[in-house]
Structure formats: C-alpha cells, structure tokens
Protein 1
Amino acid sequence: MDDITDVITFLSPEANPIVRGATVEYLLGLSGTPTDGSKFFIANLTLLKPIVGVCADVKFPDVAQQAWRSVVNLAAMEHKDIDHELIEADAIALAVSAITAPECEYADEAAMFLGNITRSTKTARLVLDCEVPGKIGVISSLADIFCHGPAFNKNAKFHHLASVLFNVTQIDDARTQIMVKAGEGCVFQRLLPFTAFEESKIRRGGVIGCIRNCCFSSTYHEWLLGPEVDILPHLLLPLVGPEELDEDDMDGMPDELQYQPPEKEREADVAIRKHLLESLLQLCNTRPGRQSMRDKKVYPVLKHYHIWEPNEDLQMLCTNVVEVIITPEMEDVVETDNGDLRDVELTADGRGLKEPVGPDGKALPPRTFHVGAPEGVTVTWRPDHKIVDISDLDKPSPTD
C-alpha cells in the first residue's frame, strides 16, 4: 500500500467490499502505533476524508466500525492538521448522528472519537453547533443517552460519553445545558449516581470530571448544594472510609456519610480523587459553598481522608479545602458582595484577602482556591481492539 492514490481508491464506496475492509483493517493497525502511525497519517492527510467516509457506510457496519476505531486513534494523536482534516470531513456531526441513532452498531466508537476530538475548547464548541432532530440541546441529548445506556441502544454501553461530557463542560454554555431545568427536572441530577459506578472507571471518572467543571459556574453553587441537587454526599462518599466518627462530628452530616461498613473503601484512582477535591475547592470559592460545608460537617470526613491519602499533592489539596472550612472568621474580611474568593483583591504578601489576618490575629489561608480551568480527557483504541483503561484522567494518553 505504498501508493496513496490506490489506498484512496480502495476506500471508495465503489471498491470491492472485501478489499475495502482489508484496507480499513490495515489502516486501523497503523493508526494504533503512535510514532510510525502519526508520521504516516501526517504525511498523507488526504487519506483522512476517505476514512471518515467509510465511517458513514451503513451497508457494511462491521467495516464502518473498524473505520471509527481508526478515527478514534487519529483523534488521539493530538495533531492540529489531523484534527483539522477530521473536522473538515464532518466527523463530529457524523459521530453525533451515530450516537443518537438507537440501533447504531458503532455508537461506542463514535463516542470515543467525540471524547478525543473535544479536548480543546475550540473543537468542543463544534459539538454545541450540532443538532439532534426533535431535541432542544445536543449536550442534554447526549447526557440523556448516557444515562439510559443500553436501554437506548442495545449495541452500546456509552461509557465514553462521560469523557465527552467532561470535555464539553469546559465551555460555559455546555455547563448551562447540563444544569438548566427542563420540564420536571434537569440532566445533572441524573448524572450523580454514576459517581459511585464501580463497573467502569471511564464512566465514573468522566462524570466526576463533568461535575468538577460544572462547579466552576459559581452562580449555580447554591442550587448544587441545596436540596434539589445535594451534591456534597456524591462528592464526599468516594472519599469516605470505614472509620467510626464521633456522634458530635456527625451532627448535621448527610446520612449517606455516616456509619460506613468495615469493608468501605475509598476511591482507588488518584485522578478521580483529585477531581473530587478540586470540586470541593471550587465550591469553597463562594460563601454559600463554604457555609454549607461547615454546616454539613465536611471537616471530619476530610480529616480522616487526609490521614489515609498516600499522595502528597492530594494531601495538600485536601489541606487547602480544610483550611477554608475551619476558618469561619475569614467571612468577616471577605469584602466582596457575593463572598466569591475569586473576586478578592490580592494583598502585597500574596494572600487572597484584603486583610492578611482574621479578627483574632490568626493568619488566614493563602489564596489557593482557584484550581485552574475546566479540562478534558482523551482515550485511544489499541491495535488489538481493546479499550484503553485510563489511568490518569488529566492527561491525554495515546498507547503503544
């Protein structure tokens, strides 16, 4: 297959189906080798549109599925020229169409591709421009399908739609679609049970990443913490262990966090624990968030968690949350109308409050409340056709 013109011909709809399938299979294997594969496809960008064309072949779904797997790997290469060609080939709209088709046999592969291509805010916005017939918003539609899972399409599990939701909620408009009320409720509450979904780290981690991003929308904090959503138990339960708590410590604590069985285990994945802590840290930015965490006795949970946590970076992140919770006197010197610490002016010594100490003379915590920006994740399809189990949800991870 040295002649690219011949390869393009083999990928055309008019080509012999057997030859077309063999060509796609060859390209799939090549796309799964990051070094050689990326060099080959970067040097032969004209191949990408024909590959995407095969993805749309409803007559031969097995071949289309293999083409989608190639596209998953291509999007994982993180090369601007490859991403550009895939976008120009209308692969994003094609993926949304496949995911929202109730009987599509390659919906999971389309979801994996969409999770990869939406890493940047620029490409994530392209998803928001897609339309789903009969639906108001594409993000709420994808979230609805994610929640239904195989009940919507028996051929798919839709775990990787969690990565898509994680990525697109980098954008404020997407976060609004997730959290806006429609009819009798909104999609956001339906995502919460998946924070404890043991069967798939991809699903669990993507949802927690999505929640983490949504916590950047501070105008929703009171709603997130109020009775309609009651987000704190969902963020804290994965961090709770089997330790017995004092009765005084549990006074006001959500019932779900009390009296854990001896076999209760904490979240094993470092990246997921990081996103849980970052969610709490974002909620600390607003006065209602800080007060809610004090009222619901978050400190005793984090005290035991901090003792258990083996990762030093996460220990520090936990300390940042605790420092805010156990310093109620800071509210007397936070002079912004809404109590949002992101609006507080920095002092000369770098502290995040206009007064470097509280009324009792105790030093107030430094301004460590901003944890970066909403972010996303990428996945890769191996040459042996096994889904990669993401070990670090923060970092793109093309595989060998």
Protein 2
Amino acid sequence: MKATCILALLATLSAVSAFVGQSQHRNQIARSSSNPTDFDRPSTFLDEDFDDDDVNVTFLDEDDDEDDEDQEDSMSKGEGRKRWENLNPKIKQRLIERGQAKAIANKKKREPALEKKRRMLMHYKKIQQEKKRSSRIERPLGFDERAPLSAYSTGMEVTGTIISLTNYGAYVDVGTECDGLLHISQITRDFFVEHPRQVLTPGEEILVKVRSASPELKKLQLTMLDIEESLDLEDEDDDEERIQLGEIEIDDELWGEMKRVTDFGAFVEVGAEVDGFLHFMDHPSWENGMLPSDFMHSGDRVRVWVSDVDMDQRRIKLTANRPSGLPGPKREL
C-alpha cells in the first residue's frame, strides 16, 4: 500500500515539472517573436539545413602573396626605370649630386668624434698648404744666372722683386746669390709703417739701393731712402759717446732733432743710447683735431723734458711741455 502511494506521488511531480517547462518554453518563443529589434541568425554549417553552395571560400597560399608582391615591385621598377631614362641628362646629374651630398652628410652625422677631429685637422692642413703654395713668388732668374754678392756695392741702385713679408721688413730678390733685407725703418720716413704690407706686396717690383753687402756673411741690406739719410743712422751708433740710460733722470731737459714722424708722435734724437718718443699730445703746438704731420716734421729741433725712463724695454718718453714742478722761468719752445 505504501509503495503504491509513493509511485503515484512521483508520477504527479514529473507531470507538474513537464507542464511548467512547456509553459516557460512557450513564453520565451512569444517574447522573441514580439521583439522588433531581433533579427534572424544567418545559417551556418552547424545548422541542419546549411547548404555548401551558399558560401564562396578562397584559400590563400604564402607563395601566392610573394608572387603578387614581386609582380608589383617589378612593375614599379619598370615604370621608374622608364621615367629615369626619359629625364634630361642635366636633371639626372643634379639628382645624382644631390643624392651623393645627402649620403655624405648622413655619413658625417654617424662619424665618430675622433675621426671627425682628424678629418677637420687634415682639411685645415690642406688649406694651409694650398695657401702657402699660392703665396710663393716666381723668381725672375735661376740660381745659375745670378751675380755674386761681391758685385754689389753700397749706394748701388737695383730693381728687385719682393719675395716675402715679415713683421720687421721684406725680403727682396735683386738677382744675387741671396735675398736682401729691406728693414721696415728703411721703407719710408713720410709716415709710420706698422707692417710692411701697408706699403709693399709680395711679387711687386721695387727700386732699392744697397745699404751694405757682406759676401763673407752672405748678407745684403737694402733701403728705399736716400743713401745719405740711411747711413746717418750708422754714423750715430757710437755708444761710447752717447748718454747712457742710467744717467737720464725724469724732468731732465734735453735738446733733440725729430728723426721720424708717425701717426702717434715723433722719434727724437737726444744723444742717448736710444731715441726718445714724443707723443703728439705732449707738444705745445697741438690743438684738438690736428694730426702729428701738421706740426711735426723730420729735422725739426725741439727742446724736451724726460717724463719717463723704462730700463727694461729701453725706452725714453719725452714731453715738450715744461713740467710745472720745475723751478725757474718758463721759456717758450
């Protein structure tokens, strides 16, 4: 009796669960059919009614891709080659030069610092060598055609070619076995020459006079001044009769002669070991706006006073204005 009741209860429960499942399934179908935003799922090969003819599938191979790329490359290269062949030769050359310059620039960017420094140093040396080579002057005569130095005497007037310039003068080829030295002090007395390049140029032909010639020492001194004026300096070089620098004191009164006028003043011969320098502003005739050549002339005698003595550089600084601290009457220059 008990077993019969249990079986009847199980059958009832299964029937109820089946009814509930069917009702839920019907509700889902009703909701899906009533929703306007839903769309039908396309059929796939998982569906029972899927047809193979509806799908067009193309399988690609890697070799096929490479072949296509090769064909495209060959077509582009062919078109580029045709365009290059049709270009103007001048345009071709310009494009080639531009590409080479760009390649060189890129290479320099990747250049190590040490290599760049070495390259720049070699470039600088090359420029210096070319500059030195271009500055060389062709000599008018060969060494076999030159006259001996003993054939030149003091006062002889010769024509020479300037070979090179230095800070202290110029070397002139006058056709003898050695070049003559034209000192900067022997160029002109009309104005002060700071460097020979102000007056002379390498390769220029000039007329000079022989100041002295020494075949034994192979030395030749030249001048562009009058030979008498040039030799006056040698006649006055007797140091034993001249005033020593140690004997000169500040405010000493001296008489002298202007030997050379420059842009800043004049060198005055006062009988000392060296010439004194008189600045143009220390001359009583100077006025604002005047040049030294307006009131200073070579050969003028002048009374001066020592304003400074430099024993190390062996210089004497002069003034033509009487110092105010000196006793006695003031006399005009």
Protein 3
Amino acid sequence: NYKIELNERQACDVELLTVGGFTPLDGFMNEDAYESVVDKMRLPNGLLFGIPVVMDTANDAIKPGSKILMTYKGKDIAVMDVESRWQPDKVKETSNCYGSTSLEHPAVQMVAWERGPLYLGGKIQGLNLPERVFPCATPEEVRAGLPEKADVVAFQCRNPIHRAHYELFIRSLDAPNVSDDGVVLVHPTCGPTQNDDIPGIVRYHTYEVLQKEVDNPRVRWAYLPYSMHMAGPREAIQHMLIRKNYGCTHFIIGRDMAGCKSSLTGEDFYGAYDAQNLAMEHAPELGMQTVPSLNVVFTEEKGYITADIAEKEGLSVKKLSGTKFRKMLRAGEEIPEWFAFKSVVQVLREHQQKS
C-alpha cells in the first residue's frame, strides 16, 4: 500500500532484522515489545534486549494491515507487514534507555528530531541487502569463516584503530577465560554514529589497510551495519546480543563503552564502568563471557604495557591526546609510530586532503 525510502539509520535496522543480526526479532517491535524493552530491558517473553528496534513515520495514513515497500537509495530492500501503530512516549523512552532526556545527548536528539511521531511494528521480509561501499557479511557468512569450537572475542569500535587499540584486543587473547586457539573478531560499526565522528567510508578504508599491514591470522575482520545510539550500559547489552548472533563467545568491554558527552558542557553521561558492570552482570544470561579491556600505555623503556605495571616500575609513559593527534594530522606533522599505524595515518591524510 505504501512505499518508504529509508534513511541510513532505518536501512541499518532493516538489514540487521533481515539477516538475523537482531535475532530473536524477525521484524520491528510491536507496541507491547517496545514498552517491555523500554521498561524492563526485556522482551515480553523475558529475553534480554538492550534498546528498542522500531520503525518510525510521520504518515498517519499507515495503519495495521498495511504493507510497506521499503527502499534504500532507490532500490527495493524489504516489505513490512504493519501489525501495530502507536504514538510513543519519547520522554520515557529516552529517560529509560539513555538515562537522559536532555537534547545534549546525541540519541535523544535523534529520537526527538529525526524520528517521526508514530512508531510501526511488524514482520519484515527481506528482498535485497542495501548496497554499501563497505561489504557487511551476514551472521551466517561471518560464522562460516570462524574456526570451529574456538573462542571468538568480539572487539567493537567506531573509530580508526590505533596502536593502543590493537594492543588491547591482541592481549585479550591472553585472558584466562579465552582458549589458546581463540581469535579476535574486529567488528566495527560502519553505520551512523555521532556527528563529529570520522565518516564511515573513511573508517572502512583505515580498517582495510590495517588488515593488510598487521596480517595476523588470529585477527578476523567484518563490518556491522549498525546505527550507534551512544547509550552506554544498554548499548553494551545490545552489542553483546548482536555479536553472539555473529558467532562470538566473548566480548571486550571497554572503559565508558558507547558513552558520550554533553554537547554543551562536555560532561560524560555515564560512569566509566557503568557499561562494564551491566554487561558483566548479564553476560551469563546471554551465553557470553566478558573480557575487561586492559589499560595499556606506551613507555619509552618497554613499549606497550599495562598502566599498573608502568606505575609500579616508575617507567616513562608517553601520551598523545586525540585532539593533539588531529591537530598534528591537519598540520601535516609526523605522527609517532608508537601511537598510530603508518597505513592508517596515510588514509586519514588522503581523505583530509580530498575534503
């Protein structure tokens, strides 16, 4: 009955629904599931789910019983059978899911300004996957490429990977709860994130060159068509659930994972370990194990080691802030190799020159 051209966020949700990334969901949440997840972080059947997955619209002619042809960049993507329509309480949704109703939070802005006033629920039938510059392997494809019966540690990121990140996820393989034949799945989100993040296509190019540079058989790579909410603790649950669907057994929980700052004051919306604590609490129920992210630092004497050892031994720690790094990048200054991979820096410079 209706045809809707999806925006990038909606296209990510539809893709994950059709390929099984949001299992057990097989469509956009109906009102009862939406209310249950908002209130209790659980589906009506009791299963954990971090953040509601909803279709929004401003078209009040669409009603239960309608069919919607969904397109993305002019290509038919899916058909939705509308089962429910309602006007959500967005204040309650943002308060419960993001811990804030402030427009200083990027996801509150998204819900308030980008989403339409009505939500639609119903099953999705996939027709074609969205065409993207970065290829997003399905859960089935990713699982087929992973070693059988080995532990798979998921590393979630939304920015270019620098030396400290690499050290962090490589060292996760030495965690006591990871098998000797375990591998890391580097699984960056390439959908929309925060407005000031590096564009997805640029991030994709940095990952591609880094994959070739490190050439490590214990590191596997795939891309996730996921739209970040910057929801801190609840998003950690969402990421774990998704990565389990992609074949992962373990998940690295970083400090202030999926956190964000006020656009006015710069203050953090979540505590440094809020996401880590919630993830650890619920990991057994999800059938996942957590691997806390180590605080690694670079020292002149011993290279990368954990911060506690550096402090204990009185070693000289070298630091370079993200702000300083970006300033050096813009000025064409030499970036120290202890901080960033040469191949990644080259890609960032090339894209900077083009823009």
Protein 4
Amino acid sequence: MASKKQLEQAHVATQLPFEVATTCLKHREGRLSIDLVHDDVEVQLLKEVEMIENVQALLQQRIQESDRQLNELRHCKSNLEADLKDKCSSYGLDSRCAGLHNGSLGMTLHNNSVKIDPKSATPAAYEAFSHDNITNAEKQRVSSCRQRELNEHTMHQTSNDLHKQAETVNESFRIRIQEMITAKTNLEENLNQTVLEISSMNENIAALREAIRLKDSPMRVSHMRLNTRSMRPNIELVRDPVQYGLVEEVGQITDSVEALSAKLNESMGKLRNLESNKKALEEDIAIKTNSLNIDQSQCLRLRKTLVWRRHEINF
C-alpha cells in the first residue's frame, strides 16, 4: 500500500516539470524573426516533455500493477482468514466432543448424523485446501516483494532521468543566453559606432553644403563682372587678359562646385546606408532583447521554481 502511494505521489510530482517545460515552449514561440529557430534549447525541451510523458505512462503502469497485486493479496488474506476461522470453529467443536463422556448431561441420539456426509471433504482434500491457501499466499507475498522492488527501482530511475534532463535543459538555456548576450553586445557596439559615423557624416555634409554656399558669392561677382564688361562700346569690347581671367575664374568655381556637389551626393548616399544599417541594428537588438527576456526573465526564472521545489519531487 505504501509503495503504491509513493507511486501516486511520484506521478503527481511529474506534473510540475511537465507544466514548466510546456510553458517554456509556449513562451519561446514569442521569439521574433531570425531568433525563432529550432535551437538546442527547443530540442532539449521537447525531449524533456517526451520523457515526462513516458515517465507518467510508466508510473501509471506500475500503479495498475500494484493495484492488481494488492487485490491478489487481499484475496489471499480473505482466504486465509476464512480458513483460519473455520479451523478455529472446528477446533472448538472437536474440543467439545473430546470432553463428552458417558456421564455427560443432555446426551441424545442423532440418527441422521450416524453416516458419512457425501459432501464432506476427504483428508487429502482437506490438507490440500489449506496447503494451497498457504502456498498461494506465499507466492503472492514473494510477488508483492518483487513488485515493491520494481516500483522503487522505477521511481529511483525515472527521478534520476528527469533531474538529469532538467539540468541538461538548464545548461542549454545558459549557453543560449550567453550567446545572445554576446551577440546583443556586439550589435550595440556596432550601433554606437554607426551613430558616431552618422554624426560625423552629418557634419561632413553640413561642411560641404556650406562650402558650396560660399561659392555662390564669388560666382555672382564673376558673372556680374563679365556681364558689366560685355557692355563696353565698340572697340573697347576686347578679349583682354581680364576677360580671359574672368571666364577662367567662372570655370574654376563651376568645377569646384561640381566636385563639392559630387562629394555631397556621395556623402548623402553613405549617410542613407548608415541610417539603413542603424535601423537594421536597432531591429536586431530589439529581437535579441525580446529573446533574452523570454529565455532569461521568463523561462529560466520559471525553471528555477522547479529547482526550488526539487525536494517535493522526491520519488
């Protein structure tokens, strides 16, 4: 009876690990994008769930076997008690007969009793009946001892297996969490560097725009001079060194502005790439933060309750 009760307690105790494992799997469905991967943690959690279900089935089988064994023992006990009761009754009757004598009071004739009852047992059947009861009882006692040993072995082995798998899952969680922390740290470092590069690029773009703006006034001056000198009358409208110098100056300013504009366009393109990289890094960091929250703050913290209550899962 005690062995069966321990089996039932062990079966109930498997419910907590089962709920923890299935809850962790449910939580991890909340991972996002690239992190929603069939990793070793998920492999070990699924293995743990399968193991617990197998253990529950095995414990239930042992409980049913123990029930059958208990019924057999109760049947043997009932047979022995009935046999013993009959023998005590017969012993009392035979003792009473042994005490009768010719001078006993109340002596009467019983003609119907002066014959052998055809329904009465033979001495061999009498001996065999009690012998069979004792033999069967001993057989069931031995079988009960074996069942109890089997129950204890099953509880001990399944407890060790579940605890070992629980540690495997926890270690897998710790490794995965450390990997994500490292990846998140690297992403954050890249993000910080990208932010610095964006700031530097914005300063560079501002400087280029300012340089282009500063070219506007000299260009206007050169154009104004050329336009004014184009009004010279008659022969005075001569292609003198000043005229060539002004045209060359306009060309130089134009080339400078085009070069600065090309650098500005190039810098704008780099800035767009940096902004795109920054957005991608921020998204990756958000994904890693979400995964860390699930594995570290939800799952691993939940599994610590399993460790704290390990003393309750003492199969």
